[in-house]
Design goal:
α6 runs antiparallel to α10 and α10 runs antiparallel to α11. The longest helix is centred in the last third of the chain and has 34 residues. With about 425 residues, the protein is mostly helical. It has 15 helices and no strands. The protein has one domain: MFS general substrate transporter like domains (Growth Hormone, Chain: A, Up-down Bundle).
Length: about 425
C-alpha cells in the first residue's frame, strides 16, 4: 500500500470510529432510550430531546468558525481533534449511569458528547486537502463516508445482542470503546505540520479576528457564499430526516426495537453503496451535478414518505388492496423502501458536499472556511427539526411535517443552480 493510500485509509478509519456514536446515541438507541425510559415515555420527552439537540448544535455552530481559524493559524488540528474526540467518548461512556427520571443528566451528557462529536468534524474534514489532489476529492470523501457507514453496521451488529438481552445502557460504553479504539490510528499516523508562530495575542482573539475578517471580506468569495447558502437549505432536509426517521417509525408506524434495528441496517447498507457510487460519479461529472441528482432523489423520497404516512390516503389504500395487504403492513413495508432510498443519498449528499466545499475553498483558509461550512450545517440542524416539530404540533400530524422537509431540498436545489463549480 502506497503512503498516500495508507493515509487515506487511516483518515477514513476515523469515520468508521465516530459513527458508532452517531448511530448508537443520536439516531437510534439512546434517542429511543431517553424518550422511553429517562423521560418515562411522556410526550414532553420529545421536547427535552429537541432541546438537547438544539443546545449542542448551537454551541457547536458558534464555536466552529473560531476553532477553525485558530487551527488554521497554529496548524494544530490534531490537538483540537483529540480534545473534542475525548470529550465525546467520555461523555458517551458516562451515559451508562443515566437512568429513569434523570432528565437533566441525560440531556447534559448528551449535549457534551454531541458538542465533542460535531466540533471535532471541523478538524477532521480539514485534513482532506492534505490527503489527495482536487480531482480525487469526491471519491476520497466518499470513501470516508462509506467507512463511516461500515462503522455503523459494525456498531449495530455489536449492539444487537445487548438489545436482545435488554441491556440497553451497556451499549453506550461499548460504543464509546469502539470510537476510542478505531480513532487511535489517526493520531498516531497522520502528521500535523506545526507552525512556529510568535503570538501577539491569545489564540481566542486571533480566532475571532480572523472570523471577523472572513465575514467582512465575504464579498470576495461570492460563489462560495452562494454555495454555503444552498448547502444550508438542503442539509436542513438531511439533518431533519436523520433526527426524526426513528421517531416517526416508532410513533406513527409502531415499529418495535428489532424492526428499527432492521430499518437502520437497511439505511446504513445503502448509504455505503451510495457514498462510494456518488464519490466516483462526482469525480466524473462534477460535484454540483452529483448533488443535484441526490436532491432529486431526496425530494421523491420525501413525497413517498408523505404518501405512506396517512393510513386514510386513498392512493395508499388502493395499492394495499392491489397487493392484498393490511394497511399497517403495507405502510411498514413501504417505509423500508423509503429507508433504502434515503440511505442511498444520505451519505452521498454529505460526502459530495464536503468534497465540493474543499474544491471551492482557498487553500490558505481551508480550516477557517470549513468552520463556516460546519456553522451552516449545524445551524440548519437547529432550524430544520424545529420547523418539523412546529408543523407536526400545529397540524396534529407528522404527514405535513414530512412534506415540509421536501421544501428544504427544493430551495437548496434552486440556489445551487447559480453556483459555479468550474475552476
Amino acid at each position: 500500500m502506497s503512503n498516500s493510500k495508507f493515509k487515506i485509509f487511516i483518515w477514513s478509519l476515523f469515520d468508521f470510529a465516530n459513527t458508532s456514536y452517531s448511530i448508537v446515541v443520536v439516531t437510534f438507541i439512546y434517542a429511543v432510550y431517553f424518550k422511553d425510559v429517562v423521560a418515562l415515555g411522556k410526550p414532553i420527552g420529545d421536547l427535552y430531546w429537541s432541546i438537547g439537540i438544539s443546545i449542542s448544535m448551537l454551541i457547536s455552530a458558534l464555536i466552529a468558525p473560531v476553532l477553525g481559524a485558530i487551527a488554521d493559524y497554529s496548524a494544530g488540528k490534531k490537538r483540537f481533534l483529540l480534545f473534542f474526540t475525548l470529550l465525546s467518548i467520555i461523555s458517551t461512556a458516562l451515559l451508562y449511569f443515566v437512568q429513569e427520571g434523570m432528565v437533566f443528566w441525560g440531556i447534559f451528557l448528551f449535549t457534551l458528547a454531541n458538542i465533542g462529536f460535531e466540533s471535532g468534524l471541523v478538524f477532521y474534514d480539514s485534513f482532506l486537502p492534505e490527503l489527495t489532489t482536487p480531482k480525487n476529492y469526491g471519491r476520497v470523501s466518499g470513501y470516508g463516508f462509506a467507512f463511516g457507514y461500515l462503522g455503523s453496521l459494525a456498531s449495530l451488529a455489536i449492539a444487537f445482542p445487548f438489545i436482545q438481552a435488554e441491556m440497553i445502557r451497556e451499549t453506550f460504553p461499548v460504543a464509546a470503546l469502539f470510537f476510542f479504539i478505531f480513532a487511535i490510528p489517526l493520531f498516531i499516523f497522520l502528521k500535523d505540520s506545526r507552525k512556529n508562530v510568535k503570538l501577539t495575542s491569545s489564540f481566542i482573539k486571533i480566532g475571532f479576528k480572523r472570523v471577523r475578517n472572513t465575514i467582512s471580506n465575504l464579498s470576495n468569495y461570492k460563489n462560495l457564499a452562494l454555495y454555503l447558502l444552498a448547502f444550508f437549505f438542503y442539509i436542513e432536509g438531511v439533518n431533519t430526516t436523520i433526527f426524526f426517521s426513528g421517531n416517526f417509525a416508532r410513533t406513527s408506524l409502531g415499529f418495535s426495537f428489532e424492526e428499527l434495528a432492521l430499518f437502520f441496517l437497511i439505511v446504513q447498507t445503502t448509504a455505503i453503496l451510495g457514498s462510494v457510487l456518488f464519490g466516483v460519479l462526482s469525480d466524473s461529472i462534477g460535484q454540483k451535478k452529483s448533488i443535484k441528482i441526490s436532491l432529486y432523489i431526496w425530494i421523491f423520497t420525501m413525497l413517498l414518505a408523505f404518501a405512506i404516512s396517512d393510513s386514510s390516503n386513498s392512493v395508499l389504500l388502493y395499492f394495499a388492496d392491489v397487493f392484498n395487504s393490511e394497511i399497517k403492513n403495507f405502510q411498514s413495508t413501504s417505509f423500508y423502501i423509503v429507508g433504502l432510498l434515503a440511505g442511498s443519498v444520505m451519505g452521498a449528499t454529505q460526502s459530495v458536499s464536503r468534497s465540493m466545499m474543499t474544491k471551492l475553498t482557498p487553500p490558505e483558509k481551508k480550516t477557517e472556511f470549513f468552520g463556516f461550512y460546519s456553522l451552516f450545517g449545524k445551524s440548519s440542524a437547529i432550524i430544520g427539526p424545529l420547523v418539523f416539530g412546529i408543523i407536526s404540533y400545529t397540524t396534529k400530524s407528522q404527514s405535513y411535517a414530512i412534506l415540509s422537509i421536501s421544501l428544504f431540498f427544493i430551495v437548496g436545489l434552486f440556489i445551487l443552480r447559480f453556483v459555479d463549480d468550474e475552476n
